[in-house]
TrEMBL record:
Topology term for the membrane: Multi-pass membrane protein
Keyword entries, A-Z: Cell membrane, Membrane, Transmembrane, Transmembrane helix, Transport
Localization terms from the record: Cell membrane
Transmembrane segments annotated in the record for this chain: 12-36, 72-97, 109-132, 144-165, 186-210, 243-264
Protein name: Carbohydrate ABC transporter membrane protein 2 (CUT1 family)
CDD domains: TM_PBP2 (cd06261)
Gene Ontology biological process: transmembrane transport
PROSITE patterns: ABC_TM1
Family that this chain belongs to: Belongs to the binding-protein-dependent transport system permease family.
Superkingdom: Bacteria
InterPro entries: MetI-like (IPR000515), MetI-like_sf (IPR035906)
GO cellular component assignments: plasma membrane
PANTHER family to which the protein is assigned, alphabetical: ABC TRANSPORTER PERMEASE PROTEIN MG189-RELATED, ABC TRANSPORTER PERMEASE PROTEIN MG189-RELATED-RELATED
Source organism of the structure: Maritalea mobilis
Amino acid sequence: MATNLFPKTRKLAFFMHLFLGAYAVMILFPLSWMFIGALKSQREMFTNPIGLPESPNWSKFAEAWDAGVRDYFLNSVIVSFFSVLLIVFISAMVAYALARMEFPFRRTLYLLIILCFAIPMHAVLVPVYVLLSETNLLNTHLGLILPYAAFGLPFSVILMYSFFYEFPSELEEAAKLDGCGPWRRLWYVVLPLSKPILVSVAIFNLVSVWNEFLLATIVMTSREVQTLPLGLVRFRDQYATDWPGMLAAITMGSLPLLIIFMLFQKYFVKSMAGMGK
């Protein structure tokens, strides 16, 4: 019986690796084509759209950067950094309180957070716009940071709640015997051991905030404060015939997320593996 099992296992492993390899090619091909296309001349984009460039031309990156990508990039960095920082900071405290502390209506509050997660951003765009207009936050970085943080909190709290709920209570009990209050237990015991979930929450929200377009279109009408997705649309309209320049701008907009994920992927994988237990 065991002898018959091994060939089946090998077959399953073979097809799984084949599927994953095909999926990786599907993901990597557009990214590599985008980068290679940015190194080509305008003529090569049409005469040799898939092959490697005859002579790599890096000047398109500098041209796109100086043409306005720099300002859009900086705005995206500011908005994304503070949005993710707010989300991670607040969701960690809320999730810890819900998972490890006893207080009235704790379960009700958690259910309300789940309900908020079910409400799409598009359903409340008009109230958000009116609120930002009344508080003079349109065309400001804060006008995007606060809504992004608000929309990112429910999902982040749900993820962290699951992690903190399974956190070993013995470590907290030992810290409690040493005189640590709830705040110190969170900051000196729980959070240092929670890097995988913190990084996962940060990456999830960074991708969402960095690529968000609809709310940014409504809030940011002034070019000086527009983020990268809006800037790329403007860049596309301005350089519609310059394909290498357009691909260079898109490549620069994609690189930060790729680099961050590559640097912190071990925490992300560890968190996803832990959540599946």
